[in-house]
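Here is one record:
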Amino acid sequence: MNKPIWLVRAGRTGHQENAALEHNLVAIGWEDLGDLTDIEDRDELIELYEETYLEDKARAISNMANQIWRFAKEIQIGDYVVLPLKTEPVIAIGQVTGPYEFNTKITDEVRHI
């Protein structure tokens, strides 16, 4: 069976790379959104995003919300992920072993894993 391959970035500047590699995980930013586990559809996520990031324009909101939705709701156990590093010319490759999780124990900048 073919599995999807997802591109996940460890923050715009790579600030989540060390935690991702050290803890063997992938993560996204947008920490201020809080736990997305109970978000049921994209419209609900877009509304939450608009309330949280007031300065973003409508087109950016739609783009960002779609990225977040894919990470939290579409990536499945068994899928592959690639993480191009910004801090060195390397691409980390892994396979998803668990569901989306909102974690507050790793670092302040790594919440959505």
Q: What stands out?
A: Strands lie at 5-7, 80-84, 91-95, 102-107, 110-112. The chain has a mean pLDDT of 92. Residues 5-112 form one domain. The chain has one domain: 5-112.
